[in-house]
Write a structure and sequence with these properties.
Number of helices: 10
GO molecular function, one term: hydrolase activity, hydrolyzing O-glycosyl compounds
Pfam families: GH16_XgeA (PF26113)
Distance between the termini: 23 Å
CATH topology: Jelly Rolls
Shape: globular
Domain GH16: 46-351
Low-confidence stretches: 55-74, 78-85, 326-344, 433-471
Structural class: alpha+beta
Strand content: 25-35%
CATH class: Mainly Beta
Protein name: GH16 domain-containing protein
Oligomer: single chain
CATH architecture: Sandwich
Organism: Tilletia horrida
Mean pLDDT: 78
């Protein structure tokens, strides 16, 4: 009998494995199986410790970047002014509400990078101390700081929560409805995205950030970018946003930033108005607009808020179609003016950071964003004092309460009874059309891939199916 050369056996095996894998990844049933298996793996410690496992909820939209046939959706939100060849197709990739936050985010139990008077808690510790839960009366996800304990000087600080997304995102649309945010002297709440690389390489985008005062006078949100050297934005007032530039150099700290115009976009006034809606549109690929941050107070007539932003969980449009802004020259200084028809229903952003082509400047700003922004994790956190709230303490009215921010935070637990986020939902739209931009990447920890568990899951499942095929 003629012997088959070993290299042909290896080649045949490789081709067979490739064929099986392609068939598997194209199968919706297989993808549901993978998602279910990863859910079980994520909650393996619960089973080992005899703790209840949260019910499995299939992900909304495509969670994995796998081949699929796009047959369209009847529930899309198009831009009627979009031009062929210039549109961005943003598809709903993930929607998080209620108990799904415990699966889609992980709890950062480490020290505070901003050196705040805070002790971030693990998931189990946060649940045990009632620092995170779903409010049964409202259905909102709550994350808060401890408001009962006096904190000794030997402890890191007041117990609090920092959430970081399991998945990472790049270009796309990030939406959040937040009905309440932390307030009180010394608080420093934030909702932001940040590189999985060595900061600031890869960038940071701050969507909600500020430090609270006694009377709510610090009620204007600040949106910021942090990058390596070489990215600047136009200074002064802008025709392309309702905000105004506070810092124009995006490098490191403090980064570049724009103050919101609305006085109810942060802090006490924000909460008294019932919260609001935020959306961050990131379009940093060559030819893209840049980074826009939108804000609608809860008091905004519902018809003036885009469907992708205002829709309740499970009811959002599957796809949002937009076109890049037409950036028209204004006067002799090449300033930016968004043409009105390109802001259909969305209006002007509260903050806008333009993406400029290589070698060009706009109103003195220059930032070719694809050189500065990579895949980002999504973070929601509440810290105290630190680099910002601690440094401005002596210039604020809060100094009348205690000589230092650290002393106040440690010794006044009841002052933080309102130091909490109440989040209705977060959703992510993205595109799969460009060099990795817009993909939701399956990850774990600080934006890192789950190589061990993912490879094990694939190996086991492929092996089982292959075994059935060849039996």
């Amino acid at each position: 009998m003629a012997r088959i050369p070993p290299f042909l056996v290896r080649l045949a095996s490789a081709l067979a494995a490739e064929h099986i894998t392609k068939r598997l990844v194209a199968s919706p049933a297989f993808n549901r199986m993978v998602a279910r298996m990863l859910h079980e793996v994520d909650h393996l410690p619960h089973r080992i410790n005899g703790q209840p496992v949260p019910p499995y909820t299939p992900p909304h939209g495509q969670q994995f970047d796998l081949p699929h046939k796009d047959v369209g959706e009847p529930h899309d939100e198009p831009d009627p002014f979009a031009k062929a060849g210039t549109t961005r197709n943003w598809t709903l990739q993930q929607e998080t509400s209620q108990h799904q936050f415990f699966d889609d985010f992980w709890f950062w139990p480490y020290g505070d990078p901003t050196h705040g008077t805070v002790a971030y808690q693990s998931k189990s510790a946060a649940i045990r101390q009632n620092l995170t839960y779903v409010d049964q009366s409202t259905g909102r996800f709550v994350m808060r700081a401890d408001s009962t304990s006096f904190i000794p000087d030997t402890a890191a600080g007041r117990p609090s929560v920092r959430l970081q997304s399991q998945n990472t995102m790049s270009d796309g649309l990030l939406v959040a409805k937040i009905s309440s945010m932390p307030t009180g002297c010394g608080t420093w709440p934030a909702f932001w995205t940040v590189t999985t690389n060595n900061w600031p390489s890869g960038g940071e985008i701050d969507i909600i950030e500020g430090v609270s005062s006694i009377d709510g006078s610090s009620s204007y949100n600040l949106a910021s970018l942090h990058t390596t050297n070489g990215c600047t934005i136009p200074s002064g007032a802008s025709n392309s946003s309702t905000g105004s530039t506070y810092q124009d150099d995006c490098a490191y700290q403090p980064g570049c930033s724009q103050h919101f115009q609305r006085g109810n976009s942060f802090g006490v006034n924000y909460n008294q108005n019932g919260g609001g809606y935020f959306a961050m549109l990131r379009d940093t690929q060559p030819g893209g607009n840049g980074i826009s941050v939108y804000f609608w107070p809860a008091s905004t007539p519902i018809s003036q808020i885009p469907l992708a932003v205002r829709s309740a969980p499970g009811q959002a449009p599957h796809r949002v179609i937009t076109s890049p802004y037409d950036l028209a020259p204004g006067g002799n200084n090449n300033s930016l003016n968004l043409l009105p028809d390109k802001t259909y229903q969305w209006g002007l952003p509260a903050a806008f950071f333009p993406n400029t082509p290589a070698g060009q400047t706009v109103s003195g700003g220059s930032c070719q964003m694809d050189n500065f922004f990579e895949d980002h994790s999504i973070i929601i956190n509440l810290t105290f004092c630190g680099y910002w709230a601690g440094q401005v303490w002596s210039q604020s009215e809060c100094v009348a309460l205690a000589p230092t921010c650290d002393e106040y935070v440690r010794n006044n637990p009841h002052a933080f009874e309102n130091a909490s986020f109440e989040i209705d939902y977060i959703r992510i739209y993205s595109s799969k059309s460009s060099r990795g931009h817009g993909s939701i990447i399956l990850g774990n920890g600080p934006g890192l891939l789950r190589p061990a568990w993912s490879m094990l899951a694939w190996a086991v499942l492929v092996g089982l199916v292959a075994g059935r095929v060849w039996m």
